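Annotated sample (chain length 302).
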Amino acid sequence: MLFRRTGYRPAAGFILLASLLIGGCSSLKEAGGTGEEFSLPQITDKATGEYHPGKFVWHDLLTTDEVKSQTFYGELLGWSFRNSGEYIQVYNGDQLIGGILTIRPEPGKARPVSGQWLAFMSVEDVDRAAETVKAKGGTIINGPMSLGERGRGVLISDPAGAQLLLLHANGGDPKDREPGIGDWLWNEVWTLEPGPLVSFYTEVGQYEDTLQGDEDMILLNEGHWRAGIRPIAQKAYAGRWVPAVRVEDPASLLDKVRKLGGSVLLAPGQEGASEDTALITDNSGSLLILQRWTFPSDKEAH
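Output written by the structure step:
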């Protein structure tokens, strides 16, 4: 759909996500231990009472510099931010869309740290989903556990090593709506071998259908495209979930990406890439797709 080819310790109070996802901890004990409770804010400002299994409902940025990250995304995408203790909530306009956590080098074990966007997938039953993960060849990194106000979750990796958090959110999932400019548009997992992941995610995400795209496999639920599985040849980029943000014109943002401390890995039209797509890293090294996308309603309005 989108692309043609293609130890650490966090700030006190949010040990789970940053320490385990970045991979700098030498053991689970350093990250608080399996099953320990962590408190994170809800993913919606108002309860919806809706649940959409297989939908990607949240993203947390794990970054080495929360101040520079706010500048990067604020100036590049127009996002705004609200501090909630040690946690930073991210808004696109009046829509709550994500959060920011800070990661720190573990004393005495400092080495280059790269940031990461951690995606959250909705599931009906976290404990049952965790059992499915294990049965289908995935790994439980931490949990299942209470995440306080956020709900119940389990941090996993799929058979190819891509990490994400399965969540049953308190108050429900965000309502389905057409993504606007600056909203999350898509999530796709990059892998060397897509076959095993189709079976894995169909079961874990309870997807009702799949659709073979030009270059990726699309996972569907409730008639919506929820995520993609993309085969790639580059081993260095395989085994990770990569999010995409909807933008008006990715090419027009590339100079700003560089000025704000990010890097452009692939510009629109470069090496066979779509003219509507750019692959970048932010100031902390987190991968992100900038995607121009036109919905049928947009075409009808012109």
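Annotation: The chain has a mean pLDDT of 85.
Annotation: The two ends are 23 Å apart (CA to CA).
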